[in-house]
Batch of 3 targets.
Target 1
Amino acid sequence: SSTLMAGGPAAALALMVTPATAAPVIVTSGADAGPGSFRAAVDAANLHPSIDVIRFTRDLGTVQLASTVVYTGAQSLRIEGRDTAIAGDGLFDLLVSTSGGDLTLRQIGFRDGLNGIVVEVPADAEGEHSTALFDVTVENNGEYGLLIDDETNGGVTRSDVPPHSRGRPVAHTA
């Protein structure tokens, strides 16, 4: 099986992605941005709908973010952290998904964000949207560990995952 490394110019990345299915994007750097970073991997998934898996290398440690990482791709996305921690400075959300596709997180931690994980279900979404957390730790986040905004009735559906807890699977019907 082949792998696709995150980072590099978008044009070079486009040549390596096949329309049918892409290999997982591999995060090899603990840096906030640049080749091999989590941000570059999510940017690649935003640009290429065939990318549906982001996988961290083992023993990467902590990725210290300088700003929010935003997933906007329409496809479902699985992020396999392999015990990596995503950290901030408490002033911004760590991971925001606005795609409407299912989001699955495995073996990853989110700490020291305003919110750890934010899922914004589009107002025009129909059916079920799944956000699944397996062996996910959220801790020391200022407001919520997991915040689901379903944009219905002008309100926000806040999850029952507080700022300091172990994640459990969550399903949301729009």
Target 2
Amino acid sequence: ALRIRRATSADSVLLNELGYRIYPAHFGHLWRSESELNDYLAGEYSLSVLEQGLKSQNIGWYIAETERPLGFAKLTWQAPIPDTDISGVLLNKLYLSPTATGHRYGEAMFAHALDCRNFKPVITDLFQVFHCLCRQQRLGEKAAHAVFQLFCGAAQLHLKIAGVQVQRTEHRDG
């Protein structure tokens, strides 16, 4: 069974290993050069960057695992929504090992992120999520629909898909 747990400072080495292994497996081909990719990885997954993030009250790192670690997610609890005066929870990252895709683990991790938001709007740049779903799971248009369905529980939804702003606000009586 999949277990999703909040990462602690003791997990910095594990997150470093996962980041350096999983991100290039999905997105390495998108970079112009290996040195640019390595610079990006160092800026996102170096031990010092991870340790700083794990200490922050505004950032939550989560690890998904079965009998072994399969992936991770990063959330920023208070992030401004562009062109508004409200803030929400930013889903910075949600990555799974290539061998862990196709098992609905990403959906479970995303649902967990929604549960953590305390009824705040969810903000995400879905390009990487969408690209990964389409390319790795070959879902095409079904991926877009599945991602949208995951967000349907959000009272306010602000997405950026491949550079296009999408906003859905649900008005509730009461």
Target 3
Amino acid sequence: FGGGVELNNGNIAANSGQVLIGSLGANSRVLLSPELIPKYDPGTRFQDISLTQSSNIVTNGSGGQVLLQGQNISILDRSFILNTAFGSSTVGNIGLFADETIAISGLGISFSSLPSATVGTNFSLESRRLLLEDGAVIVGGTLGDSDGGSITINATESVELTGSSDFVPSLITT
């Protein structure tokens, strides 16, 4: 937790673990619940989070979780977030929460359940604006009989999907 979080050509991996990133403004506090989930004071001011230059955050296995909380969240330049569920596990989660804009360009966010999984991953996004461009994707699914997870998007002002890569248009799908 800290102010102005940038991951430039970096990798974060958590096998059956959690990646929790909160970009806090000055004089802000965060408390952790017994489950290690961050709890922010009401009125907390956040700063920006950016993943650039092919950066990635990867969780997999039993109950992998990625939670990002900031003023703006940018996932750019072929950067991505990946969650793959397998085995008898608790549900995985990917959550992006921004006070203003979430912008994804290039790759994006993918989550899936392998044939051995009993549950999928849930994806939640909350912001004023969501922008996917240049072939960015939010994609989930399953490779077996398990629950493929869900996508929940709450963008209070706009959702914009523009452009494409050499392979796919910008899209949201399960």
